[in-house]
Specification:
CATH class: Mainly Alpha
Helix content: over 70%
Shape: globular
Strand content: under 5%
Order of helices and strands: HHHHHHHHHHHHHH
Distance between the termini: 48 Å
CATH architecture: Up-down Bundle
Radius of gyration: 20 Å
Structural class: mainly alpha
Length: 280
């Protein structure tokens, strides 16, 4: 069944329609997820000293933060099909806020590794952002909507490089120690994730004509029954060489982005004798 009443124009200053509310909330939620996902990265020089982490251990925490995203992205797509992007995104944001704030309780390499592993789940926000904008916009503008929401969302990985060291520096100016400072700094993105999750649930809907449960009640959307052929669909996609071509291109491009987001600040800090704020 086709989703009706998709928007055929992007009106950036219009917040009155469900299509544009979904657009703005989806890119902002994605932005905040990237902000929280890489929030600890520009503070790693301080964390390294506090937890006595080796270079290898730091590398392992980076791998963990990315590895879990691959798994969760597969699951979150199925979840969107079943309960809709509104509930899926709200749940991811609210649950994701817990490890982001909870990483402050890490007192060893093992606990820090587990925290980064859990935080990495919010990287699946990309899937929901693209899903939601695709549901809301017609073919003539959906490419622009997807590209813009993804680009503005990815920008969160840069925003956090600038903002988190400033938050940390502000806490130090208030007399907070470095050991406590990086822990308290991570509360900020955690709170932002939680608030965004509440707002996403309150102010968006799954599709132009309503939420998935309403559309299914009215017969405008098929019922979500069991696996609904998800396994067969996945296998069919895996057999298509074009899918693997896109896979390779995306892996290279996004892989570079994730690497820079994770190591840029600590690299500049170590090799160019910069302050934490300047390195970020």
């Amino acid at each position: 069944m086709e989703i009706l009443n998709k928007a055929n124009r992007i009106r950036l200053l219009n917040f009155s329609t469900p299509q544009m509310r979904a657009f703005h909330f989806s890119w902002f939620a994605f932005h905040i997820c990237f902000f929280g996902w890489f929030g600890i990265a520009p503070l790693m020089a301080v964390v390294r000293e506090d937890l006595s982490l080796t270079q290898t251990q730091i590398g392992n925490t980076i791998i963990a933060s990315v590895l879990i995203t691959v798994i969760v992205r597969l699951l979150i797509g199925v979840l969107c099909d079943r309960i809709g992007p509104r509930k899926a995104y709200s749940g991811l944001l609210i649950l994701g806020s817990i490890p982001v704030m909870g990483i402050g309780f890490a007192n060893s390499f093992e606990t820090f590794l587990l925290a980064r592993l859990a935080i990495g789940a919010i990287g699946a926000s990309f899937v929901i952002t693209q899903y939601h904008t695709t549901m809301m916009f017609a073919p003539n503008v959906v490419g622009t909507a997807n590209a813009t929401s993804a680009g503005w969302g990815n920008l969160g990985g840069g925003t956090t490089q600038i903002v988190m060291p400033l938050i940390f520096s502000g806490l130090l100016m208030l007399g907070v120690s470095e050991t406590l400072g990086w822990r308290l700094a991570m509360v900020v993105p955690g709170i932002m994730l939680f608030i965004t999750g509440i707002c996403y649930y309150r102010f968006t809907q799954d599709a132009p004509n309503g939420n998935f449960e309403d559309l299914r009640t009215r017969g405008e959307l098929p019922q979500a029954n069991g696996d609904s052929g998800a396994g067969q669909t996945f296998l069919a996609a895996a057999k298509d060489i074009r899918v693997w071509a896109l896979f390779v291109v995306y892996a290279i491009c996004f892989g570079v982005e994730l690497t820079i987001n994770n190591i840029a600040a600590i690299y500049f800090f170590d090799h160019f004798d910069l302050t934490l704020a300047t390195a970020g």
